[in-house]
Amino acid sequence: MAAPHISTAAPVQESVNEPAHEPAQEARQLWRLRAFVTQFAQLLSGAPPEPVILDAGSGLLRELVSHDDWLPEAFAQPDAQRYRQYLLHADSAQRFSVVSFVWGPGQRTPIHDHTVWGLIGMLRGAEHAQSYAPAAGGLQKIGQPVRLAPGMVDAVSPNGAGLHDVHQVSNAYDDRVSISIHVYGANIGAVRRSTYQPDGQRKPFISGYSNSTLPNIWDLSSEQSPSHHP
């Protein structure tokens, strides 16, 4: 089964101004993230082939990033020096992980790989992703950079036909923060991966995460009727 073309979803309208956000609060609409990880775990429970994961999973992620009212502010904070990678959820069997990438103005990654499948959903702002492939004497760019706007979903994979595993990602804006939500087929912060120089030289790395605590998506008390509280 050929890998699906995932990045063709119509994005939500992108404003030239800073996007309007819900009032900051600790819980926000965290049920959206809980519903997403529950549905994604159910998807993986049948051990489907990768093309099915990418196809069905992209629909789940597209629904999640179509709402910008659930990501807690603690996991949306930029850093002045480099992009941040916040773990939002890791499956207990490490079958998948969910991460928020927060890009300060003009920030970018090095050229890097993933070694596992991944889905990238744009939540806020926009980013550019340039794919690469090995070539004689180094790396060569594959096509033009893909621009992801809010509501769009893209995929990476070392296995999928028509997909690429090596790319460089950058904030499309020099004057604002951008945030994307990534889902990977492993505990991505613990995966041994590589960055690449333009001449193709590789440097091993393990990314880790920017946070030491996770959003508590399982505290249902705030969603109960007040009459249920003592």
Count of helical regions: 2
Number of strands: 11
Sheet with the most strands, sense and barrel status: 5 strands, antiparallel
Structural class: alpha+beta
Structural overview:
This protein is an alpha+beta fold and 230 residues long. The chain is 13% helix and 30% strand. It is built from 2 helices and 11 strands, in the order ααβββββββββββ. It is globular.
List keywords for this structure.
single chain; 230 residues; alpha+beta; 2 helices; 30% strand; disordered N terminus
Summarize the structure.
The protein is of the alpha+beta class.
Furnish the topology, listing elements before pairings.
Blueprint (H helix, E strand, L loop, with lengths): L30 H15 L4 H16 L18 E7 L6 E7 L7 E2 L5 E7 L2 E9 L2 E11 L4 E4 L9 E6 L6 E7 L8 E4 L5 E4 L25
Antiparallel strand pairs: 1-2, 2-9, 3-10, 4-7, 4-9, 5-6, 5-8, 10-11
Helix pairs in contact: 1-2
